Automatic annotation (TrEMBL):
<dbReference type="GO" id="GO:0019646">
    <property type="term" value="P:aerobic electron transport chain"/>
</dbReference>
<dbReference type="GO" id="GO:0070069">
    <property type="term" value="C:cytochrome complex"/>
</dbReference>
<feature type="transmembrane region" description="Helical">
    <location>
        <begin position="80"/>
        <end position="98"/>
    </location>
</feature>
<dbReference type="GO" id="GO:0005886">
    <property type="term" value="C:plasma membrane"/>
</dbReference>
<keyword id="KW-0813">Transport</keyword>
<keyword id="KW-1133">Transmembrane helix</keyword>
<feature type="transmembrane region" description="Helical">
    <location>
        <begin position="222"/>
        <end position="245"/>
    </location>
</feature>
<protein>
    <submittedName>
        <fullName>Cytochrome d ubiquinol oxidase, subunit II</fullName>
    </submittedName>
</protein>
<feature type="transmembrane region" description="Helical">
    <location>
        <begin position="197"/>
        <end position="216"/>
    </location>
</feature>
<keyword id="KW-1003">Cell membrane</keyword>
<keyword id="KW-0408">Iron</keyword>
<dbReference type="GO" id="GO:0046872">
    <property type="term" value="F:metal ion binding"/>
</dbReference>
<keyword id="KW-0349">Heme</keyword>
<keyword id="KW-0249">Electron transport</keyword>
<feature type="transmembrane region" description="Helical">
    <location>
        <begin position="157"/>
        <end position="176"/>
    </location>
</feature>
<feature type="transmembrane region" description="Helical">
    <location>
        <begin position="252"/>
        <end position="277"/>
    </location>
</feature>
<comment type="similarity">
    <text>Belongs to the cytochrome ubiquinol oxidase subunit 2 family.</text>
</comment>
Length: 336
């Protein structure tokens, strides 16, 4: 039971990271194209300023939980996917540096370089995380001799479809967050952009779900245990809700988008179970929640820690988002 519990927690941590840091990454990708003036840039940066770094902690937690609960999976994941994971890490470092120094310099050339870095540091992790998970969903070429692949083999059609889905879903998520946090012209433009991005996200979501049927085994668990179909259904309902509420309720549209991302992640995780990294060569070489986990004692101690500290973290997150849920008035954005 502890193995199953930590498999669920592992999926939940990734889902929370995508749902929370997703809109930060989306705004970073939008940044050079959406902002018309320096005031627009200040407004966009102020909208994520109080929360973006805390959102990234979920990624550290997801990685830490993988290391502690499933150390063998962690070791092989960082061996097999070393280059894309390092590129993701460098992207996040560049993004953080560019955010921190954007308003500490006055040189226009350096400011332009920092803004480009903010864009690339947002795009690269979003795309490569999608590519990485797309390849995990369809299985990696693993056998008794290890991993038979490289960065180019990861850039296969399904991996790229998943990567693009992550990017457009985060763009939609970011535009909805921006409409929730702002007033005036930037609010109107954010809503208009969200409507267009909603259709693009719907297209790639359908393409992902259809492609997954042919190139992955994700549907096997859903066909054998029909009750699990509630997970992809909630994902679809979340996406539909985001489209329905764009004009009527900014907060409901954003929350619907978050629900879509969370249950999209769980759609993949639920299809993977019990595997964390399936082998596309032979399932005997797959790394699962059972053959790659820590001892039962370790999992039990970790469970106690989670029971104590997760409610504290969730309370802090609720307080933070409530505190910084005010509307940024038109022309008054102060930047990061």
């Amino acid at each position: 039971m502890l193995n199953i519990l930590w498999f669920i927690i592992w999926g939940l941590l990734w889902a929370m990271y995508f749902a929370l840091d997703g809109f930060d990454l989306g705004i970073g990708i939008l940044f050079p194209f959406f902002a018309k003036t320096d005031q627009d840039k200040k407004t966009m940066l102020e909208s994520i300023g109080p929360v973006w770094d805390a959102n990234e902690v979920w990624l550290i937690t997801a990685g830490g939980a993988t290391f502690a609960a499933f150390p063998t999976t962690y070791a092989y994941m960082f061996s097999f996917l070393y280059l894309p994971l390092m590129l993701i890490l460098y992207g996040l470092i560049i993004r953080a540096v560019c955010l921190e120094f954007r308003y500490k310099v006055n040189n226009p050339t350096i400011i332009s370089l920092l803004e480009i870095g903010f864009f690339l540091g947002s795009l690269l992790p979003a795309l490569l995380l999608g590519v990485a998970f797309g390849n995990i969903f369809q299985g990696l070429p693993i056998d008794q001799n290890g991993y038979h692949g490289n960065l180019l083999t990861l850039l296969n059609p399904f991996g790229l479809i998943t990567g693009i889905l992550f990017v457009v879903a985060f763009l939609l998520h970011g535009s909805l967050w921006l409409s929730f946090r702002t007033e005036g012209d930037i609010n109107v433009r954010a809503k208009s952009l969200a409507k267009k991005l909603w259709f693009i996200t719907l297209f790639f979501a359908v393409l992902f779900l259809v492609s997954a049927y042919f190139v992955t085994n994700l549907y096997s668990n859903y066909f054998s245990i029909p009750i699990l179909l509630v997970v992809p259904i909630l994902c679809v309902l979340g996406l539909l809700g985001a489209g329905i509420f764009i004009n009527s309720s900014e907060i409901l549209a954003f929350l619907s988008s978050a629900i879509c991302i969370i249950f999209l992640t769980f759609t993949g995780v639920g299809g993977l179970y019990p595997n964390l990294i399936p082998s596309s060569i032979n399932n005997a070489f797959s790394l699962s929640a059972f053959n790659s986990s820590s001892s039962q004692y370790t999992l039990a101690v970790m469970t106690i820690v989670v029971i104590i500290f997760v409610p504290i973290v969730l309370f802090y997150k609720f307080w933070t988002y409530k505190t910084f849920s005010y509307k940024i008035k038109e022309g008054e954005g102060e930047g990061y």
